[in-house]
Amino acid sequence: MLKTIFRKQIVAYLSALIISFVFLGIVLSSVFSSYLVNQKRVLLTEQCERIAQIYTQYQFLYAENFSDRTLQIERVNMRTRLSKELDSMQMYMNANCFFTDKNMKVVLPSEEIDFLYGEKITEETLKTVLQREIPIYRGTLSGYFTDTQMIIGYPIIVGENVVGAAFVSAPMDDVNKTIKDMIVMTLLTLTVSAVVAFIMVYAMSMTITKPILKMNEHAKVIASGDFEKRLYVKSNDEVGQLAESFNNMAESLQNQEETRRAFISNISHDLRSPLTSMTGFLKAILDGTVPPEKQNHYLAIVLDESERLSNLANDLLDLNKIRTLDIELDISRFDLNELIRKTVLMFENRVTEKNINMVVNFANNTDYVRADYDKIQRVVYNLMDNAVKFSRENGEISVETTDVDGAISVSVKDNGIGIKKEDQKKIFDRFYKGDTSRGEYTKGSGLGLSIVREFIKAHGGQLRVISELDKGSEFIFTLKSEDQQ
Ligand code: ADP
């Protein structure tokens, strides 16, 4: 994996580097070369114009054909100026100069290029100088020069006539050399950058792939059922986040595994105890240990236990539905007051048995809601069941509805044994049963409130508990009233 990521990255980086450097090289060298050529042209044109002027004056002095002494001195001065000019051109610009007559025959070349003397220029571009143009020529002048020259021409005009031309030529190799140097520099920089990129990409892929490889190993460990181990990745980037998510996943798997184990052990316990007592009683009845007059008493206990088992099975089925798929609500419109009335009536016997004072108060005559009838009935049933179960003899239970900001709030309140502060958060957990030492109150599966919570959550409602130990508990849930939905 390291190799693949590294290879992919290095290919991407190097291609990007090469493309940008080639592009940069082409752009820079073309910009530079046109700048340098232009500079050279401007300089040569200036020089050519100057020597052409000196030469024109020199020609003029000759044309006058005077023989007096001042003129002769003047001519000598001109000649010296011209040769000085040519010398400095040669020295500073490596440029040479030659003059032609009006037939383009070289009449005066500078020392370095005396091989041109007497030659006739045949290059068409250069001939345009006779039409008083300033030609710019690049080439070897039909092979006279060994390397490419830039040649600029300037007409020499005496009176109205073009009597010849002055040319300045300079080799192009310095421009070429600069471009070559630039290409070499670009290649060198490219190589250095490529090496740096290689090292950086390698280091980077190591930081990415190492934790990924670690995670891979870890995933295998988790797959084999060991959820204990955690990953340690320092980085704050996406890889770090991935590792964190990975750890969270492992933790939640571990929690789930623990819940599963607790679930199975709770279920086994809850199944075993009633089954053991039922089997015991039935055996005793069958083998005659229990006298016939007491059989009904024990059969009633067996019936009681079997009801408990069937309740537990129902709770488990409900919980399973909640766990496996999102709770599906079968929404209908109904009067919540009616539902409460009917549900409370189911407890008539138990309430009378315990001599509990039952109070029911509704905020309105009818309170229509749009909800799942069966599930809300289950909620009220479970809350009532707890209220009755945890009430003392001669206690009081009140069920009340109130309007709160477009919602209906239902409270089921008892003055029974109450719930310890530290237990109040746990009571909604699955299988949580309060203090097991309190004998008669431990009947139950510990699933009732978790079912209540899930059903209310599915309706988008809220559920809370207010309770004080030994004083009583109040469970309140809210449902949106019909016109708010
Ligand atoms: P159970 O089947 O044990 O009633 P629940 O989930 O309904 O399971 O309740 C969990 C625990 O919450 C109970 O065991 C009990 O300790 C506590 N509890 C619930 N309702 C009441 C109440 N009205 N008064 C006192 N304790 C309560």
Structure report:
The protein is an alpha+beta fold. It is 55% helix and 17% strand. It has helices at 2-64, 69-93, 124-127, 173-223, 238-286, 292-324, 336-345, 348-353, 373-389, 448-458; strands at residues 96-101, 106-109, 136-139, 149-158, 161-171, 331-335, 357-361, 368-372, 396-404, 407-414, 462-468, 472-480. The chain has a 5-stranded antiparallel beta sheet with strand order 2-1-5-4-3. Helix 4 packs parallel to helix 5 (238-286). The longest helix has 63 residues, at 2-64. The two termini are 54 Å apart. The mean pLDDT is 86. Bound molecules: adenosine-5'-diphosphate. The site of adenosine-5'-diphosphate has 21 residues, from helix 9 and helix 10.
Chain-wise SSE layout:
Blueprint: H1 2-64, H2 69-93, E1 96-101, E2 106-109, H3 124-127, E3 136-139, E4 149-158, E5 161-171, H4 173-223, H5 238-286, H6 292-324, E6 331-335, H7 336-345, H8 348-353, E7 357-361, E8 368-372, H9 373-389, E9 396-404, E10 407-414, H10 448-458, E11 462-468, E12 472-480
Parallel strand pairs: 7-9
Antiparallel strand pairs: 1-2, 1-5, 3-4, 4-5, 6-8, 9-10, 10-12, 11-12
Helix pairs in contact: 1-2, 1-4, 4-5, 5-6, 6-10, 7-9, 9-10
The structure holds adenosine-5'-diphosphate (ADP).
Adenosine-5'-diphosphate (ADP) binds next to α9 and α10.
